[in-house]
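Quick start: what a row looks like.
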Amino acid sequence: MSPTETADTSTPIEDRIGPRGVWWPTDAMPAGAAVEFAQWLESLGYGALWIPETLGRDPFAHAAHLLSSTSTLAVATGIANIFNRHPGSMRQAQLTLAEQSGGRFLLGAGVSHAPIVAGVRKLDYSKPLTSMREHLQGMADSMYMAPAPAVPPKTVIAALGPKMLELAASAADGAHPYWTTPEHTAQAKAVLGDDKMLCVEQKVVLCTDAAEARATARAALGVYIGLPNYFKNWFRLGFDESDLADGGSDRLIDALVPWGTAEEIEARVAEHVDAGATHVCLQPLKPSARMGEPDREALEALAPR
């Protein structure tokens, strides 16, 4: 079977990605290394590789490269920034990748954050919820005049707060929460209902040394801890200003990033599933690693069985 062929192009994307995937920023890898990584994840049985969009590669061009080099692995954007493109071009990219990969592409779309949208791109970030609503409607209204995928592709949106989750339920196919807890997963499930996808990102540290594991988690949290989208959600979950001090309290770190043995990490993943997650994508943080280097030992230990 060639890399772009799949056994059944009619398989829905939620069945393709299965219960477990991997979330990793492959922008730090050369293109060939990213392909090798995707192929290795496919060999381990992971259902999807989630790639973000920040200030690096175009996520759709990169997704095409990865999809053309794999056979069964789905590629999902976690997330593609709606402010970077017109709704029509977002829809074109989604349909093109879904059709050319045999249904192995999942669009995760989101509003990103003010420092990138307003600070770097110099775009209006005053009404992110309205912008997302209008973007989804614009996608739905867009014309597309090429061969369609065998199965209409789906869209999940980055959603943390109740209003964005309600939009995910009413105007998208589900949600892709980031930096959250099983308690948030249960809240999201209650809003989304049973017929929507709930694809939860979960950072993990395969390390039994508490100080080292927490230091690894704090290093990953550093760039995010001051972003309102995240800390407002943590406050809704019962954390407060004191939990943001010194890179994050032990209470916050332990709630957001499970660490320890593979069995202890599996227990946290199971909590998300029990709370209603339809898919958990693992982000394996490696102690003392170079930037952009995933913990392959963790991915082997936590691979789907």
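That is the whole record. Residues 31-44 form the longest helix (14 residues). Confidence is low (pLDDT under 50) at residues 1-7.
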